[in-house]
Amino acid sequence: MCGITGLVYRDRSRECDGDVVTAMRDVMVYRGPDDAGLHLDGPVGLGFRRLSIIDLGGGHQPMTDARGTRWIIFNGEIYNYRALREELIARGHTFRSHSDTEVILQLYVERGEKCVEALNGMFAFAIWDAEHQSLFIARDRMGVKPLYYAETPAAFLFASEVKSLLASRLIQAESRPETFSEYLLFRQVAGPQTLFKGIRTLPPGCTMTIRDGRSRIDRYWSPIPSGDRPAIAFDDAVQQFGALLEDSVKLRLVSDVPVGTFCSGGVDSSLVTALAARLKGEPVNTFSVGFDDPDFDESPYALRVSEQYRTIHHRLEVSHAEFAEALPSLVWNNDEPLDFANSIHIFALSRLAKQHVTVVLTGEGSDELFAGYPRYRIPGLAAKYRYVPAPLRRLASLLTRDHRIAKLDRYAAQSDDDVLLYNSSYIARDEVTQIAPRLPAGALAFRRECLGQTASLHLDGAARASLLDQQTFLAGILLRQDKMSMAASIESRVPFMDYRMVEFANRLPTDCKMRLGSGKAVVKAFARTLLPADIVDRKKSGFGVPLGRWFRSNEGLGAQVAGLADRPSADVFDRQALRRFVAEHRDGRRDHTELLWTVLNLCVWREAFRC
Length: 611
Known about the structure:
Strand order of the largest sheet: 2-3-1-9-8-10
Oligomer: single chain
Largest sheet: 6 strands, antiparallel
CATH superfamily of the largest domain: Aminohydrolase, N-terminal nucleophile (Ntn) domain
Number of domains: 3
Distance between the termini: 29 Å
CATH topology of the largest domain: Glutamine Phosphoribosylpyrophosphate, subunit 1, domain 1
CATH class of the largest domain: Alpha Beta
């Protein structure tokens, strides 16, 4: 786990300034406090910060091949590198280190741009080929590792973080208001665009080649399944899932430094913890966060898992005051607004974990793969709810004051694709219009493109929603995990994001995922062989944070929300409408937690980056 950055000047006669690349590299020193490297070759500069995980004594980057013509910088881990190394040796390759970095480089020497197809891991890397004067960059299949780039009149730039690009001074921090509507709806901008003008992300499962001043993006993998999903017995699916997850966890335990787990007490992280403890055969360190509010405190469940598997358990609490104080700095670490409030707790856990381990395993991704969110039932329910007379729908919405009933009422008048499109939104479109009437409405082109890819596959609504989330919503979750853990110099590994697991999950029929109104059926069935039933079957809590209560306080976040409409950075909003939403929430008339969190983060982000 590291930080990479670099640039290629368009004017090939221009010598790359080492001070520029060093500034780009060192603005993210926390991503790699153990080592640093720099390579300059005429108009090209590569910078690297290292967090040492594999081959602690070797593996210095930028790394070159035997001829000294190809140079690589690499962020991530290749979990099958040992098997690949043996295959390459059998074909005549020789190695000067025991690192996975050199395995990628040797694969590139042998296979060129197709080298990525052999890699099982999380990665973002760049290879400068001096002989062919080309730069090749690549990102892992699910986008576990971030990779940003910018194409300016002067140069092509890339980095693990946006702030690294900005440190070059070849591009300035400037917001793109046309993306704000999408952010307000979904708390993220999906696809290659970002909230920054001129800064994009390389999509997951893609490579990019820069040669002769031109760039080309190629896709080498997609989560969209090909062909029909074959029938499979539920018990066979459970067995295959268990074998895959166990192998995935086993691969992610390979490390030359101590490994632990984030165990929230939910079924996914508890399952990863159980397998890690069983495979290690020795006590592992586990970490959880607690609250003084029992409605949000999952730590007793995490403690139960710890006691069952005899882990060395560590628990912390983050107070309201600590949370509020940390928000601005962690928005800066995140490069964009925080999608999720529990990002701050992941950072706090990572900082605690750093005292004991360097690598943690987490449970992210299971819900998106195996239909774990209640909203995956919405498309099917909405199709049926359309047949309820409109007056009865509105009456039910008014009488219950239940946001889920109100959501079904809104969706009853929408097309199937629009139901899927807005299913993961946090704020209703009419609320966005009320607070930001001057903002251009987002076209949501990338999200619609993702939906279009599944239109002809004869999939049910839950399967299409899952695939859409894997390409959009999940990106924010993975970004959160990377940015918050790396801010504390911790590497986080995500066993559910093994591409074999993703392909398996997306071939499964929905009835292996959703049974008796509950999601993740195949996951829970396997989990019952390792975990207590009350952990497997308890209601999903989602690692929640008591934001709603904190927003009603007169201190910390409450004070920030009370003055939200008066912040200079709130100039894109209708201040009067925003004051109304704040007042309704703070006096208890309505719950606007999601809207206020989203608006607050956008304002804090604009202030952090002065855009």
